[in-house]
Amino acid sequence: MTRTYTPWFLLVVALALAAVYLFPLYWMYVTSLKTGSEIFANPPTFWPREPNPDIYPETWARRTMPVFLLNSVIIAGGITAITVILGTGCAYVLARYRNVWIDIGLFCVLMLQVLPASVMVTPLFVGFNQIGLLNYPRTAVVLAAAAKAMPFFVVLVRATFMSVPRELEEAALVDGNSRVGAFFSIVLPLARNGILVCAILTFMSAFGEYIYSKSIIQSPSLQPASVGLSGFLGPNSTDWSSIMAYSAIYVTPILLVFVILQRRIVSGLTSGALK
Amino acid sequence: MTAQIELIDIDKHYGNFHALKNVSLTIDKGSFVALVGPSGCGKSTLLRSIAGLETITSGRMTIAGKEMTGVPPRHRDIAMVFQSYALYPHMTVEENLTYSLRLHGVSKADARKKAAEVAATTGLSELLSRYPRQLSGGQRQRVAMGRAIIRNPKAFLFDEPLSNLDAALRVQMRKEIRALHDRLGATSVYVTHDQIEAMTMADWVVVMRAGIIEQQGRPLDLYDKPVNRFVAGFIGSPAMNFLPGRIADSGNSVVLDGGGSLPLARNVEPGRTVIAGVRPEHLQVRGDDANFHLEVGVVESTGSATYLTSRDGNFQLVQSERTQLASGDRVGLGIDPTRVHLFDPETGIAL
């Protein structure tokens, strides 16, 4: 009986942890639809008495959300593009060659992951300022955040490349292809799923990037939605339903993408490109 | 015979590991050469060097008379069949077959026609639109072969292509590969650790160990006249038995340390210590005129032959007749004097 007991117990723990994490999400949606007095009602209501969906278009227009969201997409797209193009090449080399320098390179890449953005932001700010990059604040954020996103991407994609048998590449070489040609016609198609999944994950985390954007981008017209959200939190602000509506608009598309691609993301991360 | 592949003083180092030591080998046009040896002997490294997948540390090689040292694989015009077949998983059988043609700028229509021809000769016509994962092991093997023959290359290189197949299929593919080789008039280099494959398929067998060529020659020459104890023990199945002993004063027999003696067909320096080699299939069960005696341990009957192993486990013999011998029996054995091999106990070199 203990054999069935253990998985059930673990499942309960997993569900409890998931509930702790997902409850705020539920609370966000519910609160966004409540009126001001209901938000502070005690005991709290778990479903709004008079749902008020008008808050969504109103917040959308009042907080210039299209601008913020467009900036978020531009910044996240830039981060993802740089990470994918450079990270794929980097991961391939790290997967295919074995020597001391490769080990040192891998170590350095992993070190990037260890350094928190909040520590790096000040030296980056000073450095960018000296070379004049702060005049192009979104570019500056893309560069900084791409460096931050790189290790995660490289390590995962490297594992994908390692699952592509080397003999396939050698067969392509003998069949008359060059190293570069073999990479593009054999290795890349087979690693495509893993790369796509990692690119999606990179995009999703870049979409919520906050620290670099908050510190580097001054002009509200260039700020992403994450920084725009913090604009609510002034000393007098208690406009909780607008904050929650803003958050909901910001998070829902990403959430939908994840739910739709969830199966592929999980299988792409665990199984590699082929068996 | 003209040489199709010539290897001259090939050396290969991996860091401190000396994988190929001054290997020279000439492969005649149209011949089927097997490189055989235990794992780690350098046979695969040598094959991959011919393909250009490994860069050699020093030495030269030519293929069809052209200097190929340092030339990348794609300019060598050779085809290779890998142990894992290395079929491209994201391409259909037809795309796998025509991959090299497409790279060499053959038109789509011509490539398709060629693929259909090759598929017909290898029995793949029904499978052209399938993906490798939908094929059985034997079918994948055929696709790998087809991919090699479609280009009509200067040489075929096989890297243990049969080791992933089951025993029955392996025997069948052995014949098919050999038949294909003969039909195409191709030059083939075949790497295997299985000496039966080497003996049955090849015109010329190269036995390697620890990065050097121990002996090369026609299969039966290796069987009849091994130059050292390693080759003697490696070629032939079950393996040759080795018995330590000393040449008798008369010079024409070996007194065995374990009791008994073996007759010799020639005279050897008396008193010399030797290792005598006798093949399991050359021993006969005899009564009174036995050369030496043995206690039977395990008896294995296959129907066509009976394999006997001695009680101490390090002596084997094969009897083609059925035998009444059972475990624990003491059996007298004799041998034709011309079939006794002698080796130096120190160097292992044949005497």
Automatic annotation (TrEMBL), chain A:
GO cellular component, one term: plasma membrane
Biological process terms in GO annotation: transmembrane transport
Gene3D superfamilies tied to this protein: MetI-like
Main location class: membrane
Keywords: Cell membrane, Membrane, Transmembrane, Transmembrane helix, Transport
Pfam hit, one: BPD_transp_1
Compartments, record wording: Cell membrane
Membrane topology value: Multi-pass membrane protein
InterPro entries xrefs: BP-dep_ABC_trans_perm, MetI-like, MetI-like_sf
Regions crossing the membrane: 7-29, 68-94, 106-128, 140-161, 182-204, 243-261
CDD domains, per the entry: TM_PBP2 (cd06261)
Domain ABC transmembrane type-1 intervals: 69-261
Family note: Belongs to the binding-protein-dependent transport system permease family.
PANTHER family: INNER MEMBRANE ABC TRANSPORTER PERMEASE PROTEIN YCJP (PTHR32243:SF18), MALTOSE TRANSPORT SYSTEM PERMEASE-RELATED (PTHR32243)
Protein name: Carbohydrate ABC transporter permease
Lineage, highest ranks first: Bacteria, Pseudomonadati, Pseudomonadota, Alphaproteobacteria, Hyphomicrobiales
UniProtKB/TrEMBL annotation, chain B:
Keyword annotations from UniProtKB, A to Z: ATP-binding, Nucleotide-binding, Transport
CDD domains hit by this protein: ABC_MalK_N (cd03301)
InterPro entries: AAA+_ATPase, ABC_transporter-like_ATP-bd, ABC_transporter-like_CS, ABC_transpr_MalK-like, ABC_transpr_MalK/UgpC-like, Mo/tungstate-bd_C_term_dom, NA-bd_OB-fold, OB_MalK-like
Cellular component GO terms held in the UniProt record: ATP-binding cassette (ABC) transporter complex, substrate-binding subunit-containing
Source domain of life: Bacteria
UniProt entry tagged with the keyword Disulfide bond: no
The protein's name in its UniProt record: Sn-glycerol-3-phosphate ABC transporter ATP-binding protein UgpC
SUPFAM superfamilies the record matches: MOP-like, P-loop containing nucleoside triphosphate hydrolases
Subcellular location(s) of the protein: Cell inner membrane
Record's bilayer topology term: Peripheral membrane protein
Name of the encoding gene: ugpC
Pfam families (alphabetical): ABC_tran, OB_MalK
GO MF annotations, alphabetized: ABC-type transporter activity; ATP binding; ATP hydrolysis activity
Start and end residues of each ABC transporter domain: 5-235
GO biological process, one term: carbohydrate transport
Protein family: Belongs to the ABC transporter superfamily.
